[in-house]
TrEMBL record:
It comes from the Bacteria. Pfam families: AfsA. Residues 1-21, 313-339 are annotated as: Disordered. GO terms for molecular function: transferase activity. The lineage of its organism: Bacteria, Bacillati, Actinomycetota, Actinomycetes, Kitasatosporales. Signal peptide: none annotated. This is A-factor biosynthesis hotdog domain-containing protein. Residues 30-163, 197-303 form the A-factor biosynthesis hotdog domain. Coiled coil: none annotated.
């Protein structure tokens, strides 16, 4: 479970007032972002029965969500867009007040690689949302949503997730002394891995450091990274752990460069700031033409998250040839060697 909270004044209208043909982002407070530049949603249309339609835009260049291997969007931009859309609908459609904390329990997405290409203009997208279970209580709510993301009337991604919403007093009581922790005070003496080994170009984007064990690393993000740490928090954010899973799996294929085209991740508890969180990648065998990598995160001998990464056309790591456990029959994080 990973939480995010943002408290601020909101304009009376959830969608920015724009004239015909004009575009602006939705209020940053509704997607729990401090920087307007990190808001990918631009508005919402009149909901249809049983669903909602949102609009958004992906920039041609982004400090983090741009694929270093070619002119295409990083597939994880779909995960961030789904995260923002879930928060936006919780506030505007399900009346969750600002100041409530959102606990992400699970998320998955799948993208179409050909539709991630960056063109001559920013990528305008629409999101069709379908509501799953919505359970409300006086001081909390649970929301499940599924999304289909289109560009130029073609599907670019699908996915969704489930999260809990807690009133401030409930969250403070649940977190106890950890509620006073500050992510920006996070320090780590571990040296980060070389960027090329984890599929990154900038040292600030590396979130893993080496350990003495093979295929096992410690999570060591730089809290000065303005994208991963856009606002204050009392634990390691879920998107950082998702990036840690991606980077861990990437090391198993280096120097061949690969990118996730889909992800399934389940969070069981918070990743606290005062104890090392380790991630372990395990090759789970291959069924032509696919292979699967399991990435788990643990802290103090307790599981924090589990994700499954499946490859299409990826080589089998030589160091893993002796171990061939069965494939897990569940949604997975898909990898493909870019053309």
């Amino acid at each position: 479970m990973l939480g995010t909270t943002l408290s601020a004044h909101l304009p009376d209208s959830p969608t920015p007032p724009c004239g015909p043909g004009l575009t602006a982002t939705v209020p940053r407070e509704l997607v729990h972002r401090s920087a307007v530049a990190e808001v990918f949603l631009t508005g919402s249309a009149q909901p249809e029965e049983g669903g909602f339609t949102l609009t958004g835009q992906w920039p041609r260049a982004h400090a983090f969500f741009t694929d270093d291997t070619g002119p295409r969007h990083d597939p994880l931009i779909a995960a961030e867009t789904i995260r923002q859309a879930g928060l936006y609908l919780a506030h505007t459609a399900f009346d969750v007040p600002l100041g409530h904390t959102f606990l992400l329990r699970r998320m998955d997405f799948a993208t179409v690689q050909e539709q991630l290409a960056i063109g001559a203009q920013p990528t305008d997208i629409t999101l069709d949302a379908v509501t799953g279970q919505v359970r409300r209580r006086r001081t909390s709510a649970t929301v499940e949503l599924r999304f289909t993301i289109h560009r130029d009337n073609r599907v670019v991604a699908t996915g969704g997730g489930e999260f809990n919403c807690l009133a401030p007093e409930v969250y403070r009581r649940m977190r106890g002394p950890y509620a006073q922790a500050d992510i920006h005070a996070l320090t780590d003496s571990h040296a980060p891995l070389p960027p090329a080994l984890v599929g990154r170009q900038a040292h600030k984007d590396v979130v893993l450091a080496a350990t003495a064990l093979p295929h096992q690393w410690v999570v060591c993000p730089d809290p000065r990274n303005a994208v991963l740490f856009d606002h204050a928090g009392d634990h390691i954010p879920g998107m950082v752990l998702l990036e840690a899973a991606r980077q861990a799996a990437h090391t198993m294929f280096a120097p061949i460069d690969s990118r996730p085209l889909a992800v399934s991740i389940h969070f069981e508890r918070y990743a606290e700031l005062d104890t090392p969180c380790t991630v372990k990648a395990r090759w789970m065998g291959a069924v032509d033409p696919s292979g699967t990598v399991e990435v788990t995160g643990r802290q103090a001998d307790v599981t924090v998250f589990t994700s499954y990464l499946t490859g299409v056309g990826t080589p089998r790591p030589p160091e893993a040839k002796e171990e061939q456990p069965a494939l897990a029959p569940r949604p997975s994080l898909t990898w493909r060697v870019p053309a």
